[in-house]
């Protein structure tokens, strides 16, 4: 998915980009645009993206002026601190209207609305991507299932992925972390690094580490150092605050 963000506050634009990338990691942010004039120039020069996030009050005027000057046919999600523009917003391809401060859960719902309008309805249930609800594990000669809500984290080591429960039990599962990341609810699970996917309830403490990194204290405790890189630290903090 290719996205353009029209927002005149740089910090707000950056924060929104982080939220979108966290929710949809494959998203490409084509541009962050801060004014009506710049937006008109951009949309005259380049092909429209798949989706636009657009603030209404920009540094040089109202963003509806963009749509009066340029024909834009892609969907738009408006972001604003004011609620009086909703009717006008829905006249210009708007699929949602988010009030500031923007919350990750609101963006998640808006993206789902966008995606539901873009994809064809599956012909059968087998075509629907399912969020994982339980895991099949083996304990000795016994095969059992563990509900996903009982999983504290997944840890990968030497090519093996372990599932750790809230009770501190450990099981080997036949998934890679990449596969798990696609099947788990991203509002409660976070890919901390190449070795760990952690559930929100397992994060006991977060400590600042040198060079902008973070370290985590988990429950149940893991006898490994858990470090979140500087590049992921902001994304992790946003996830904690969802």
SSE layout:
Blueprint (H helix, E strand, L loop, with lengths): L1 E5 L3 H14 L4 E6 L2 H10 L5 E5 L1 E2 L2 E2 L1 H6 L6 E5 L5 H4 L4 E6 L4 H15 L15 E6 L2 E6 L3 E7 L2 E6 L4 E4 L3 H7 L5 E3 L4 E4 L3 E6 L5 E5 L7 E3 L1 H11 L2
Parallel strand pairs: 1-2, 1-3, 3-6, 6-7
Antiparallel strand pairs: 4-5, 8-9, 10-11, 10-14, 11-12, 13-14, 15-16, 16-17
N-to-C SSE string, H for helix and E for strand: EHEHEEEHEHEHEEEEEHEEEEEH
CATH third-tier fold name of the largest domain: Rossmann fold
How many structural domains in the coordinates?
A: 2
CATH class of the largest domain: Alpha Beta
Q: Total helix count? A: 7
Judging from the principal axes of the Cα atoms, what is the shape? Answer: elongated
The CATH homologous superfamily of the largest domain is termed Response regulator
Strand order of the largest sheet: 2-1-3-6-7
Q: Measure the end-to-end span.
A: 23 Å
Task: Characterize the largest beta sheet: strand count, sense, and whether it forms a barrel.
Answer: 5 strands, parallel
Q: Beta-sheet strand percentage?
A: 25-35%
Structural class: alpha/beta
Could you name the ranges where pLDDT drops below 50 across 5 or more consecutive residues?
A: 123-128
What's the assembly state of these chains?
single chain
> What is the strand tally?
17
């Amino acid at each position: 998915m290719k996205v353009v963000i029209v927002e005149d506050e740089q910090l707000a634009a950056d924060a929104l980009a982080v939220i979108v990338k966290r929710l949809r990691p494959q998203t490409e942010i084509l541009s962050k645009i801060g004014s009506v004039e710049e937006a008109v120039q951009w949309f005259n020069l380049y092909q429209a993206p798949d989706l636009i996030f657009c603030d209404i009050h920009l540094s040089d005027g109202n963003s509806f002026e963009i749509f009066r000057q340029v024909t834009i046919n892609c969907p738009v999600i408006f972001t604003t601190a004011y609620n009086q523009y909703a009717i006008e917003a829905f006249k210009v391809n708007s699929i949602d209207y988010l009030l500031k401060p923007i919350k990750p859960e609101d963006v998640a719902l808006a993206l789902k609305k966008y995606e539901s309008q873009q994809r064809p309805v599956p012909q059968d249930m087998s075509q629907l991507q399912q969020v994982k609800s339980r895991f099949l594990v083996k304990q000795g000669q016994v095969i059992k299932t563990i509900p996903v809500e009982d999983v504290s984290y997944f840890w990968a080591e030497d090519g093996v992925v372990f599932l750790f429960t809230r009770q501190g039990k450990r099981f080997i599962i036949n998934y890679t972390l990449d596969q798990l990341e696609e099947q788990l609810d991203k509002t409660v699970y976070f890919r901390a690094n190449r070795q760990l996917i952690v559930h929100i309830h397992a994060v006991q403490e977060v400590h600042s580490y040198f060079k902008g990194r973070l370290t985590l204290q988990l429950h149940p405790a893991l006898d490994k150092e858990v470090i979140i890189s500087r590049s992921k630290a902001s994304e992790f903090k946003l996830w904690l605050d969802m």
